[in-house]
Amino acid sequence: MIVVMGQGASKEDMDRVIKTVKAAGLDVHVSHGIEHTIIGVVGDVRHLAPEELRVLPGVQRVVRIMHPFKLASREFRGGPSVISLDGISIGGTELVVIAGPCAVEGFEMLLETAQAVKAAGAAVLRGGAFKPRTSPYSFQGLGKEGLEMLAEVRRRTGLPVVTEVLSPSDVELVASYADILQIGTRNMQNYSLLQEVGRARKPVLLKRGLMSSVEEWLMAAEYILSNGNDRVILCERGIRTFETYTRNTLDLSAVPLVKGLSHLPVIVDPSHGTGRWDLVVPMARAAVAAGADGLMVEVHPRPEEALSDGPQSLKLTIFEKLMREILQVARAVGRSVTEVRAHAS
Ligand code: PEP
Ligand code: MN
Q1: Is any ligand 1 atom within 6 A of the Cβ of residue 207?
Q2: pLDDT tens, position by position, 68-103
Q3: CA neighbours within 13 Å on the CB side: how many for 230?
Q4: Ligand 1: distance of its center to the CA of 184 in Å?
Q5: Same domain? 293 vs 220
Q6: Is residue 304 in some structural domain?
């Protein structure tokens, strides 16, 4: 059970709720969000009627939630969450396409890619500055220099940027440059990192762990939400199976499934989901048809020269084709595609 306190609730109001909960032999978990303070009731809630709390001063809503994830559950909001960012809405009727290189390799290639994806209709630029590579000998990203390039390209193009943060100690630095903080698949269950981005004032794009169940994914989102950050975007990016012709198995059934379980927006990454550029466009179409709120796609001006993930990166012309094709699917399922902001240069 969750108690949502109204914006004007006082400390006394909070204390009264906590006292009532404890008197019923239960415990509380308090999370202070930007808009609301939420008191989670922990324990066997059968001994406490929601009405007992609903009538207390300062209480806005009491919601009974049977899932282990509470703040992430659909019941908590009763409908979808729309995450607003710099003139863009994620989770509304419009689809948001995030595109860019796997890694920021240099300023010129980043700017060239950003301008091209923007012209094709992408609303957000992606690019890794800190790269989680399987081999310690592979390109690890440009770090802070890469973040500076992302910020400069945002200034020139008007595209907000999303980039991955790998460690709790880097959250403040990455948040000072990025518009959205990305938690990669390998870190989905790095709980200290989740707590730290939960305390950040930036939206978080949470990728599904490559070996994670839907429930584990939603529990990871719960870590971020329960630390006060209510702007979480989920990203399905494929899970590991016995199949070897693809890098991962893109679980598109997770899209309608998670949208039924949670109020959070769900986007799809068909690039890491398949590992093959030739499968990216068909799976992007399928993701939109399945109800995804957006896409994250890797694009490189010269994929054969890419320092990471070249085989799954789309050439600029193929990305344009993807945008044209998803527009048609979007229309067929009652969605439109967010155009880049009118005031962008
Ligand atoms: C990425 O999007 O840059 C990335 C590394 O993806 P994933 O965490 O899904 O492998
Ligand atoms: Mn990549």
Answers
A1: yes
A2: 999 999 998 888 999 999 889 999 999 999 999 999
A3: 19
A4: 5
A5: yes
A6: yes
